[in-house]
Design a protein that fits this description.
The complex is a heterodimer of chains A (about 775) and B (about 200). Chain A is of the alpha+beta class. In chain A, the strands form four sheets. In chain A, strands 9, 10, 11, 12 and 13 form a five-stranded antiparallel beta sheet that branches. Chain B has an eleven-stranded antiparallel beta sheet. Chain B has one domain: Lipoprotein localisation LolA/LolB/LppX (outer membrane lipoprotein receptor (LolB), chain A). The chains are: A alpha+beta (about 775), B alpha+beta (about 200).
Chain lengths: ~775, ~200
């Protein structure tokens, strides 16, 4: 059990070198989706893929505000013009008519292939007659000038139908020739980057380009007061990486500095300080190496979480150093406290281990990191530190602090009743609260700060891209079958629009019909002789000039023989972009997405979709689905947490062999968890999943304090030393977790604040409840 | 004399149009005064007959119905013949309802500059809103308060492509004739009768 010191140090040294070499080859990421739940359903998987690298992920929404509308419009035009020359962007749209001409040409040339109205009966005498009569009426409207230009080629108004269908999507207001927010405060642009949203370096470069071009476009933005607002998935990814990177360094450094200062004040020796940090440093290296091996890459948030390891792992050295009494060797001290320390480490592992099972890849990383770190820190404390401590080392001469602490603790049991009452009140408060306790919004898990989420919501509202809530996803093996499925769905949806179940929808088949549909439309055009005949009969007694519709007959004949459209036909039009966002190539097939607008009766939509008998069609209600997903994860986490707590209880029972003592130890921890939860609810309103994990860690960290309190002290001096070691260990934990409470990243913030508060309470409550319990057991024995 | 520059402008325009005598007689009367008197009308209603002479048709189209104006920015055109159709303009919303086609569409005028220029020629004149009118058109006024003709030529190229000239004629604060001459030679004449407050 006790290898020779030299061997131990040799093993440690080799181990540390291996860890460092693993870390040197590790990749570090800041991928936001690591902290989104893994999605089980294939249709939702399509969405997650889209969020990672689809067209949606490439959009940057740009707002310019802080000046008069004409000045803002001018900046918008200049900025758009400059950015269009940059290779980083595939498109810059600010409402100026730059792409519309090409779009219209495409629609015009291919109107008979694109129009769903072209069915076999469409060019019959009766149908043509009806159209021609309607045209006469339409010619009375203010649009007659435009209508006159197209009617000779297009008496059945296919172009107008197509334009109307595409114009159904809501668009931003136009002012001074560019897009504006409804109230006119903000000029709006939408940029699409060439690089995918997860390519954070490329996104950062694109954003820098926007910023620098903005300053040249305004000349001097400080003078005009014009402000640039940016949002979108790429913006989030870049700023989160900045935040996470900043937080990881800042908080680890601050925590290290504070803990080091505390240890230096305690031991007054730089050498002992370094020895005290040795277990933590070894643990952190091992943790990062383990994550790199286990997950292939290390997330920035995992590094930031290192701060907490400092808070917890430094405790082990403190327990050892502080407890060495004069005349005792470090080795014998260790033998004395090791059983308690080992139990403490094991309970902590039970707590942190729960994170391993989480369905968030990011949380699982934190779990593996912490567990490995704690085991290595404890092992280094057990086998390396004693060998390195100078013989005759005594960290603390007897001081007044220990005596005063002992006096304080001896009075602590007086607070027993008030604490019990407070705990019951907190429990009642949590149980009887009217509002839901949990925040089931996926946004609460997002590493994106709330202020940026709000800006995103505002700009999205301005641009008229309302949050898509309902979406139909059809998955197919080939592009053709995905489009054919879209057409079937569109037919059903059109009927539902007529019934008022929804207002409208968008479909990839509107931009690129399936080959089958294009062929059937060509087949629906009668032969030139028949069409000419039908037209002649339909025109009888109508006041159109003779031979006015000759161009129509020629166009129809051309359309019958024109090559069918494919994806490439849309090149150079803004419709290509639209199609790319609705028709997606996946690793094993194709997905068509049909976003719905103004859904009044989602049940009816669901029913009709089910009747279509296409196997892989799903109606997604993003709001409901994401909330359900979240609830499932929360239930899972609650189950895991309870299992973790039960494991801690069983572990305690197995080593202490006394139900009474286990309950004594769990009592202050339960009180700490309940009161911490109440404080969190009072301060932030609703708890997130991360708070739940924080509460579990309160048990994991706090159990150490309770265990040492529970251990019978051999003497008054020993009690004083125990109390000192606990107090300093506690401060280190509060520092390690507490600094995270200042983080911008919700995960770090939530866990940091929960454990920071909980750790202090655990120590105080252990003093109040366990000291009393121990006194009683003294009395009775 | 707040309106002196406008009056001077009127005289200059009058000189250019060669109608010197009439302008000198009523030097005090000009587009500003006309607009003011039109602006005082709070509501009006009348019957209209509109004839459209279109190049693609061999005979003119004829529409008739009722016009209702409510100051400052609501204009309704109820076409009764040959088939009912209602056009309602309110602020910058333009709604076309067609009971036969069972269609109702609402446009935001700012999205359709040409349509906006069209409707503002009539609405701004009815409202006496010279500012909006001059945003879209160069104006020229001939005649006197009891018989006048306002000529509008579009200032925006997009509108110039479509419309060459609009003549709005009336007496005192009543409009009784609107003639639109389109660039491609088409023409429409709307005669309004019985406009009454």
């Amino acid at each position: 059990m006790n290898p020779s010191p030299r061997l131990a140090i040799g093993i440690w040294f080799a181990f540390t070198l291996i860890c460092i070499s693993i870390i040197a080859g590790a990749t570090f990421t800041a991928d936001l989706s690591a902290f989104l739940p893994r999605s089980p359903a294939p249709a939702q998987q399509v969405l997650v893929e889209q969020l990672r690298n689809g067209v949606v992920s490439r959009l940057v929404l740009i707002g310019i505000e802080g000046d008069t509308p004409p000045a803002l419009a001018q900046t918008s035009k200049r900025l758009a013009q400059q950015l269009r020359r940059q290779a980083d962007f595939t498109s810059i749209n600010n409402g100026e008519n730059t792409g519309a001409q090409k779009d219209r040409e495409f629609l015009w040339r291919n109107r008979y292939l694109l129009s769903a109205a072209v069915v076999p009966d469409h060019f019959s005498v009766a149908s043509l007659r009806k159209m021609l009569e309607e045209n006469l009426q339409l010619l009375g409207s203010p649009a007659s000038a435009m209508l006159q230009r197209i009617l000779p080629n297009d008496p059945t108004r296919e172009l107008l139908g197509l334009i109307e269908q595409l114009a159904g999507q809501s668009r931003p207001e136009m002012r001074h020739g560019v897009w504006f927010s409804r109230n006119g405060d903000r000029a709006l642009l939408v940029a699409q980057t060439r690089a995918a949203g997860f390519d954070i370096d490329a996104q950062e470069h694109a954003l820098d380009l926007i910023r620098s071009n903005f300053s040249t476009a305004t000349g001097n933005s400080a003078a005009t007061g014009q402000k640039l607002l940016l949002t979108g998935p790429g913006v989030f990814a870049v700023s989160s990486r900045e935040n996470i990177k900043g937080d990881a360094w800042r908080f680890s450094l601050i925590a290290t500095a504070l803990v080091a200062a505390l240890l230096l004040a305690l031991y007054r020796s730089p050498k002992i300080l370094l020895l005290g940090l040795l277990p933590v440093a070894s643990g952190a290296l091992a943790g990062v190496a383990a994550v790199s091996l286990g997950f292939g890459s290390v997330h920035g948030i995992t590094l930031a979480f290192g701060a907490t390891l400092i808070g917890e792992g430094v405790d082990y050295a403190i327990y050892l150093f502080t407890r060495i009494t004069p005349g005792e060797t470090s080795r014998s001290t260790l033998t004395r406290i090791w059983p308690t320390l080992r139990l403490g480490v094991l309970t902590s592992i039970c707590g942190f281990g729960v994170m391993l099972f989480a369905d968030f890849p990011g949380l699982a990383q934190l779990g593996l990191f912490s567990i490995t770190g704690l085991i290595v820190a404890a092992a280094v404390t057990r086998w390396i530190l004693p060998a390195m401590l100078p013989p005759g080392f005594v960290a603390l001469e007897d001081s007044g602090i220990a005596a005063r602490l002992s006096a304080l603790v001896s009075r602590a049991p007086a607070w027993r009743m008030p604490l019990i009452i407070l705990s019951v009140c907190a429990l009642l408060f949590l149980a009887l609260r009217q509002e839901p306790l949990w925040n089931d919004n996926l946004g609460s898990l997002s590493p994106v700060p709330l202020s940026e989420q709000n800006l995103d919501g505002q700009l999205r509202g301005d641009i008229g891209a309302p949050d898509v809530r309902y979406l139909i996803v059809a998955i197919a093996d080939t592009q053709e079958s995905a489009l054919a499925a879209s057409e079937k769905i569109s037919t059903a949806l059109n009927a539902l629009v007529q019934q008022g179940a929804l207002q409208g929808f968008d479909s990839p088949a509107a931009y690129l019909p399936s080959l089958a549909a294009q062929r059937s439309r060509q087949a629906a055009i009668p032969s030139p002789a028949d069409l000419g005949n039908n037209l002649r009969q339909a025109l009888r007694d109508l006041p159109y000039r003779p031979d006015l519709f000759a161009p129509f007959l020629a166009d129809a004949e051309t359309a019958q023989k024109q090559p069918l459209l494919d994806r490439n036909s849309l090149q150079q039009t803004s419709l290509a972009l639209k199609l790319d966002s609705l028709l997606i190539k996946r690793s094993d097939g194709w997905a068509a997405m049909l976003p719905l607008r103004g859904v009044n009766d989602s049940d009816a939509v669901q029913r009709e979709i089910a009747l279509l008998k296409i196997t892989t069609v799903v109606l997604l209600d993003l709001k409901r689905d994401s909330e359900q997903l979240f609830q499932t994860f929360r239930h899972e986490m609650v189950t895991y947490s309870l299992a973790g707590a039960a494991a801690i209880g069983l572990l305690l029972l197995a080593s202490l062999r006394s139900l009474r003592r286990v309950l004594d130890i769990l009592a202050p921890l339960s009180a700490a968890v309940i009161i911490t939860a109440a404080i969190l609810v009072l301060s932030v309103g609703k708890l997130s999943l991360f708070h739940l994990i924080g509460l579990l860690l309160v048990v994991a960290v706090g159990s150490n304090y309770a265990l040492f309190f529970d251990r019978q002290a051999t003497s008054a001096q020993d009690l004083g030393r125990t109390l000192m070691s606990l107090l300093f260990a506690n401060w280190c934990a509060v520092i390690g977790f507490g600094v995270l409470a200042f983080s911008q990243v919700p995960l770090l913030y939530a866990i940091g604040s929960a454990v920071g508060i909980g750790a202090i309470l655990s120590l105080a409550f252990s003093a109040i409840l366990i000291a009393r319990a121990r006194n009683e057991s003294h009395d009775s024995s | 004399m707040r309106c002196l520059p406008a009056a001077l402008l009127t005289i200059v325009l009058g000189l250019l149009s060669g109608n010197v005598a009439a302008q000198i007689v009523s030097a005090e009367w000009g587009i500003v005064q006309l607009m003011q008197s039109l602006g005082q009308v709070k509501s009006a209603r009348g019957k209209f007959v509109e004839r459209k002479y279109l190049a693609i048709l061999s005979t003119p189209l004829e529409f008739s119905g009722t016009l209702i104006y409510t100051a400052p920015d609501r204009l309704e055109k109820h076409i009764l013949l040959p088939k009912p159709e209602t056009l309602v303009l309110e602020q910058d919303r333009f709604t076309i309802s067609n009971p036969t086609l069972q269609q109702s569409r609402t446009l935001t005028l700012t999205d359709y500059p040409v349509v906006q220029a069209f409707v503002e020629s009539i609405r701004s004149t009815l409202a006496g809103d010279l500012h909006t009118l001059t945003r879209f058109y160069h104006t020229n006024l001939e005649g006197n308060p009891s018989r006048w003709r306002l000529s509008l030529t579009p200032s925006e190229p997009a509108m110039q492509d479509v419309v060459r000239l609009i003549h709005i004629s009336g007496s005192t604060n009543r409009i009784d004739r609107i003639e639109i001459i389109e660039t491609q030679g088409d023409r429409s004449v709307m005669v309004i009768t019985g406009i009454a407050p």
